[in-house]
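Lab channel / #folding
Pinned by the channel admin:
"Please post every new chain as: sequence first, then the structure tokens as a reply. Keep commentary short and put observations after the output so the thread stays searchable."

First post following the new format, from NK:
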Amino acid sequence: MYMNLLFFLLKKFSKYILAISFLCTFLYPDTLQSETKDIRSRDKKEINSTYLTSKNELENYIIDNGDTLYINFFPALDLSGFYSVNDEGEIFLPRLSGINVSGLRTAELKKLLNERYKEFLISPEINVYVAIFRDINVTISGEVRYPGVYNFPSYKSLSIQNYAQSQFDYLGSETSSKEEGEQENFNERFNLTLKNEVSKEVITEEKIKTSNKLDPSFSTKVERGNVTTISDLIRKAGGITSFTDLKKIEIVREVPLGEGGGKKIAVINLNSFLSQSDKSNDLRLFDGDRIFIPSLTSANKAQVPKSVLTGLSPRFIKVNVFGRVANKGEVLLPLEGTLSDALDVTGPMKPLSGKVVLIRYNSDGTIVRKKIAYSAQAPRGSKRNPLIQEGDLITVTNSVFGKTTDVIKEVTAPFVGIYSTKKLIEDF
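Reply from TO:
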């Protein structure tokens, strides 16, 4: 009964219900709009303007010999240019001649220069940038395959083109505004200012006239390295082992003189780089940094294959194989390859072969020489089928019977020759 009554009412007033629903969309627009905003706020995350703030990665960079600085002088823009730090830690600036900058940060040098140039310029605004970073030497020790000191090439800042372009633009406009009587003197200053400390080439006025962009020779004369990070150092040191503890990597770095000098230590967790390819903790390294990687209490064999896939360890190593094999010379083996892999690559061992001699460098720089009773059926990594390292020298020797055979050949060779000659004469 109630169902029939409800059906009757809906049927009678259905046209009014539709009209009321349509009017509600106009009567309560704010409600619908707010719901839409809520959905958008859930889908999109607002980015605060502080995201644009520099990370100041170079805030504590210590200037030293081998660096090239770009110093921008305002209002005396004709003094701006690239200044290389010489072996004594000095740069040569107009009016000041040689000044020592070794051990300073760019912010400290900027402050000192603004003070000194008040004697010569009205309200100077001087800024200092590192245009070319010197070669770096970093030390790594602990649980890596090849501990030691490693060198990485200099790094040319990508901003160097912007520095040089602004210099070209200014000097180019100055050239066009000079009177003929002043041109010769300007040309001399121009060449001195734009002397390229990178390529040792003087950039001439003609190069500015032909192009309003940075001359390619300025940015390509020197092979450009890359920013060096912890992962680069580990990779160059041969990669990790199954005992490497990536969660407690220690970095020892020099403290700038302005902060009292000395050294500071930081502990970095690089495990996310291995598991998720997360590079957030893959910090940039600077000259003089020291890295120590501790060992795990038990082996984690799964992390070595992961390190190869993520690039933390190299895929292949180079070894040299000599002696009684089909193909002698340098061969590529997979990381953690064994002696059997090396002999498989160089072809089968020749008959009458003896023991295998393995020569390699230890981590402390000493040389070890091992005689191995090789067996292709021995387990990988065992005493008779050991793991091979980068730079190993492998020689397959003669067996005792093989050596005896060689001696017999050497002794009988002259008699065979005499007999052959005699037989040839008799037949003739």
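NK: DSSP finds twelve helices and 18 strands in the chain.
TO: also worth noting, Confidence is low (pLDDT under 50) at residues 25-43, 185-224.
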